[in-house]
Amino acid sequence: MSTFSIFLVLITIVCFLLIVVIMVQNPKGGGLSSTIGGAQMLGGVQKTTDFLDKSTWTLATILIALILLSSLSFTGTLSDTDSKIIENTGSSVPATNTPVAPAQNTPAATNPAQ
After folding, report:
1. How confident is the model over 76-91, as pLDDT tens digits?
2. What is the pTM of this model?
3. How big, in percent rounded to 5, are the helix, strand and coil portions of the chain?
């Protein structure tokens, strides 16, 4: 499994978690905190709102860091040098750009039969 594939899986997981955390929140204050039932459960409404806010910012920061690190896997020190695509494209490119001399119209030498 290449480095980029690992980053792709991690980015997908973080995106899914970020979507879930954002969908739980309600912009009018009635999201998860209103369904808990009161201030006695899970430390109260304010603690739930703080947790959701901190987890949103944490997941967003992790997502940005993973995206930046995955871009390094293309050209940086984390790059995959065993790629078959790189080998195939590298061999099809001519090594030099020197033009080929046109063939001259000279008759072929004839050898008399002995």
Report:
1. 555 556 656 666 665 5
2. 0.52
3. 60, 0, 40
